[in-house]
Amino acid sequence: MLAAFWAIGILAVSGPTWKREPTPFTQDAAALVIVLKVTPTMLAKDIQPSRLVRATQKIHDLLKLRPGAKAALVAYAGSSHLVMPFTVDPNIIDMFSQALDPDVMPGAGDDPLAALTQAAALFQKAGLGGSILLVADSLPPSQLAKMGQVRRDTGIAVHFYAMAAPKGVRVPADSPPAPPLNPEAWKQAAATVGADLTVVTVDDADVAELARRIPAAGQDRFRQAGGQRAPGPEGDGGRRPAAAFGCGTARHVAAPGADPAGGFPAGQIRLPGDAARTGESGTGGETMSRRIALLGLFLVAAVLAATRQCPAAGQPVLLQSELRQPDKIWVGQRLDLLVTLLTTSSFAGVPRFDLPKDAGLAIMADDAQPILGTTTIDGVAYMSKQYDISLFPLRSGTLTLPAFAVEFGYLGDAGQEVDTSLTTTAAPITVLDVPGADPKLPFVTATDLNIADQWDPNPGKAAVGDAFTRTITMRATGLPGLALPPLRLPSSDGLAVYARQPRVATDTARGDYIGKRVEVFSLVCQKAGTYTLPEMRIQWWNPATAALRQVKLPPVTLQVAPNPLLDAGAPPGVAGGHGRASAWWWAAAAVFFVGAGTGGVWLLRNRHRPRARADAATEKALFRQFQRAAASQNAPESMRALTRWFDAADPSQGMGGLSECIDVFGDPELQRQFAALEACLYGKEKVPWSGDALARRVAAMRKALRRRRLAPRGQGQALGPLNPSFFGGAVRLPGTMPPVAAL
Predict the structure, then answer these.
(1) Fewer CB under 10 Å: which end of the chain, C or N?
(2) Which percentage of the chain shows pLDDT scores above 90?
């Protein structure tokens, strides 16, 4: 009889179906690969909270403007790594981007060429077209020519997103040293590569500009090939078997004939015999096939349930499940499900519980400390293991605890290990609303609740561009961290709020759960004004005392002052590569410079010498600070002092950063000492460095730069930005030094 039921089920499931197949190009959206630089300089806080954190926030905002479009994430430092392949779920990219940190990168360095090459390969492998967005605070000039070659060879649009603040922005004292934004160098880089350029802004203007420049639809290979989808890597029109990929509980499986490039609607599996003509009959056949399939599956499930859930006494293994329910069950109240495994021999291994998901219940299984015992059923002696599984209803109403499988092992008659799987019994649960509770507010059921609200820095006065971090920590006794409710902090015009991934943990003490949930919010001041965050209320129901209370977090007021260096109304960055300035802008600039020419000549004649003396005194004082820090062998202070001197003196006259200046100067000892200083600060392995040697070689470079700056015009050739031979010395060959950040 069982064999007959199986045959019916197999025939029902394998029956053919007919349906209309929609065109695969109606849901095309241009794909986007985000290439993110993850180096120590990205931890600089000239952009708050930091360049890296702000970059992830901007990526979050951009993906919100591209619903349904595919996106992938690549991270790079000294090497390039795929963080997330193409997905249409922006939350996954948001989660993984927040976890990036220079400490998790395998090697130090700066290799955007490898990341750009990997991003282009992703498009080729998936059979897609689209754009690459490279987010960085600087680019090494030595790689720009090859990056441009990659862009031209692949034909993929490249967009640069400069993530650094301009010179003069107030930087917190605890910020790692990093060069400021170099607009001219970024423009030159965009022109060399053939990329668009957008510079980060304090408001959302940069994200809006990126969304406008990066196409959101219709840029796949179907349109690039003139209406025919270009074949995939295996020459089958882009359709090929793909391996299953899972993240968390979501798992997408592509069968033979599926669409790994994602051109077809989600969830559709195309069978070889699917009908594709409009109006083709087949509705009756489809309905009949579904009925047969449902009937067959029902019969098979009934047979399996009868054989598993109602085992007869005397079998080698049994399973018993019991849900203990009190008279009244409240939201968040703990319930105990006792699962008992029995065997006539001995157990082998550790059982695995296939706990249900998304049933409106938070389920915690303590499979580490079962209760061992023996029992007799119908005269047969059994050895038993009892497990206590805790359930916490997350909402009111009628819920159902689904049946789930338990896999475990036991010893057979010959002493061999035998694996088996038995199923528990489903159980309904009626959950009541707490009298007087507001369904719109967060709700916690616990015997004890503590909430801590911390700000960094303390709220109060701020300026445009400043950022605050608010951390709310909830600790509850009698409740796991999974059952604690999420908190929300609303945004407002001028004050952006970004919620990081919550940190959830559960401890046990004397058999009771102690749950913890940490919510972290970043608040970025985008416009001047006064902002008041409303009071936050959390409901707390104590089932032991049947008391309902409210825990209140008071309102907070932020006063944001204007910041001339970060004007929210400024244009969203500068356009390079493909951008053009309008004619009226040039005309206005010409009128301005002609009008200011006469006054400028007078100012230069009368103020040049005192101003030069003041600048020279400032430069000299900053250089002495660097010499003292280097002599004390203090690595962090030496790097900060060296960076401050370089930024104030501008010895390279806008043609590069500190790393490039040292690299192009061509002094091997200076390069070696500076690399050792960087490794001491940022590297995983500490490298010995000499402060005296570094100070001597920097002094020699300073002297050479001063001679070049004071040289009369006409004695040397005027060189453009990013020219590696502006010292007049030999040009360093590519590959002779590790990549360094230079923009």
Answers:
(1) N
(2) 38
